[in-house]
Amino acid sequence: MAAKARFLLLTGLLAAATWVCLSAVAASAFDVPAVAFGDRFSPLFGDGNLVRSGDDRSVRLLLDRRSGSGFISSDYYLHGFFSASIKLPKDYTAGVVVAFYLSNGDVYEKTHDELDFEFLGSRWGGQWRVQTNVYGNGSTSHGREERYLLPFDPTLEAHRYSVLWTPTHIIFYIDDTPIREVIRHPDMGGDFPAKPMAVYATIWDGSTWATDGGKYKVNYKYAPFASEFTDLAVVGSRADPVLRVPRRGGGADQEELLGLMTADYALMTPQKRAAMRAFRARHMTYTVCYDAVRYAAAFPECDNSDEEREAFWAWGESKTVVMKTRGRGRRRGRKAGAGARARSDVASS
């Protein structure tokens, strides 16, 4: 009966969200208030490599020979909208990884859930890439990675990166453009994140895999590598990570969930979907949805099409996305050997 009641509740929430979606005009920017660092977050590691601003509205995370750095939210959340404006390190950043993500790995070591933005550094003249991951119940052995080239230089100014997580769907945003949507499919089972998670931000040495499958390592000659986090925003129900329930009882948590699922950032309008498809067509370099080399079985939530499949090699690498050489103002195609390098990169990530 409890399962049926939850199903009916989610069905009602989806119906309400669909009605709002059909009747509302999406705003040009999400109205989500930023919070002070000390109100919702605390340092995780790095000591002096985590530098808070005087007004406590921004944080710099540094990586040097001594240590990386990171912070964590003071609470765990069962669903929500989590956002930060991030400016990435500049110049030579091969091997550097900056991450903004949700996880409960500290509580569920072998069955953890995770939703990631991972920013992967580059060599001189290269581009930062961003990878999104979706893990549920320890599903890292069949992870749901996707990678994209950014349509701007993320080292010149901050851009907003956001994750929406609801019981029925997940959306990743860059600024106000959705770049990935994962709709919960019955065949996903425990692969869909369902346990309370905390919010993390880190910078660390990913030399073993981050740039061309580990071919290019962090060069500490260019340290410290500095990433800046501002406009931190958290909208969601605080929850007990062990009991897996919101801390507020009664109907308050259901009201919060309804508010979350009917907010503009939770609604995939036709305009948003068109923007998402355009972004993915132009900037996505890898997706598990077309990776027949690593994964024999298809992922049930993937919205595959024969037309789109033609744009990808058998290992999920794009045939059409072109690299942009930074600072030279011209575009070049991938070299013939790029596919083999991509396979090595994908396997190590």
From TrEMBL:
Positions with biased composition (Basic residues): 325-335
Superkingdom as given in the UniProt entry: Eukaryota
Segments forming domain GH16: 25-229
InterPro entries in the record: Beta-glucanase-like, Beta-glucanase/XTH, ConA-like_dom_sf, XET_C, XTH
Subcellular location(s) of the protein: Secreted, Cell wall; Secreted, Extracellular space, Apoplast
GO molecular function, one term: xyloglucan:xyloglucosyl transferase activity
Active-site residues, record numbering mapped to chain: 114 (nucleophile), 118 (proton donor)
Keywords per UniProt: Apoplast, Cell wall, Cell wall biogenesis/degradation, Disulfide bond, Glycosidase, Hydrolase, Secreted, Signal, Transferase
PANTHER family (UniProt xref): XYLOGLUCAN ENDOTRANSGLUCOSYLASE/HYDROLASE PROTEIN 8-RELATED
Entry's family note: Belongs to the glycosyl hydrolase 16 family.
Name of the protein described by the UniProt record: Xyloglucan endotransglucosylase/hydrolase
The species this protein was found in: Paspalum notatum var. saurae
